[in-house]
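User: Here's a structure from my thesis project, written as structure tokens. My advisor, Dr. K., wants to see whether a designed sequence matches the one we expressed. Can you design one independently, without my sequence as a hint?
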């Protein structure tokens, strides 16, 4: 347990290091904020639209509750609406990050390369890939990760109907699952520069799961705050680069 807590705090520190790196270089912060601004508008628009129609959606997916008593029906449909919004945030945030990284590929590659080359000793064996190839890899990985997120969201959505547990334990599990997937996305560029694919990335991050969660959970929660992603994503990319570099060079104890 002590090891888990220490690893988790290490992940948090790596994110803090990412913030420090981009704040000391406003150019990196600005570069990372540009693509995030575009996709933030899309995410907020989708969330607002969902909030407007969430009652109708909750009623549509719980037709069995139409003849129930008013209080019971309201509780069930509140849980359904809560689950719908949670699922949207889970999948939407991953999709948001994936789209941002694909659209802003050259921007985030510049951040990752700058961090590794200027602060971490560089990557002598780094591979050079065109934006088109990087985007193709990013889209392929994003489809796989979003697919995993959707598969995980289905049982979590169903578990959300369990009284008490569905409103306490399930959200915590959902955050951990989705933060793990987010951490995989945010460490993509350092692995891709070394010619390492998604399978290797998942294996490396899984070996130090608590470190990955310590890094990714705060990123996930901060990105739920409107417009926070404009600052959080550049810092998370910098921190994810440091995390990947240290894991690949076995520098985390």
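Assistant: Designed independently from the structure alone:
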């Amino acid at each position: 347990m002590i090891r888990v807590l220490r690893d988790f705090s290490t992940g948090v520190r790596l994110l803090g290091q990412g913030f420090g790196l981009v704040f000391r270089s406003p150019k990196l912060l600005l570069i990372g904020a540009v693509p995030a601004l575009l996709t933030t508008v899309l995410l907020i628009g989708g969330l607002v639209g969902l909030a407007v129609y969430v009652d109708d959606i909750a009623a549509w997916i719980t037709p069995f509750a139409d003849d129930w008593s008013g209080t019971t029906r309201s509780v069930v449909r509140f849980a359904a609406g809560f689950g719908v919004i949670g699922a949207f945030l889970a999948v939407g945030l991953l999709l948001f990050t994936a789209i941002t990284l694909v659209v802003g590929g050259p921007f985030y590659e510049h951040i990752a390369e700058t961090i590794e080359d200027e602060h971490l000793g560089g990557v002598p064996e780094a591979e050079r890939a065109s934006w088109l190839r990087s985007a193709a890899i990013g889209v392929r990985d994003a489809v796989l990760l979003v697919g995993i997120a959707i598969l995980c969201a289905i049982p979590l959505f169903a578990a959300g109907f369990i009284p008490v547990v569905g409103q306490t334990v399930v959200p915590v599990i959902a955050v951990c699952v989705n933060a793990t997937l987010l951490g995989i996305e945010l460490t993509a560029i350092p692995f891709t520069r070394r010619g390492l694919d998604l399978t290797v990335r998942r294996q490396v991050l899984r070996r130090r799961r608590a470190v990955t969660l310590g890094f990714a959970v705060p990123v996930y929660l901060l990105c739920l705050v409107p417009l926070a992603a404009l600052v959080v994503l550049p810092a998370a990319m910098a921190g994810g680069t440091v995390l990947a570099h240290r894991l690949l060079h076995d520098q985390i104890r």
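When you compare it with your expressed construct, this may help: The chain has a mean pLDDT of 81.
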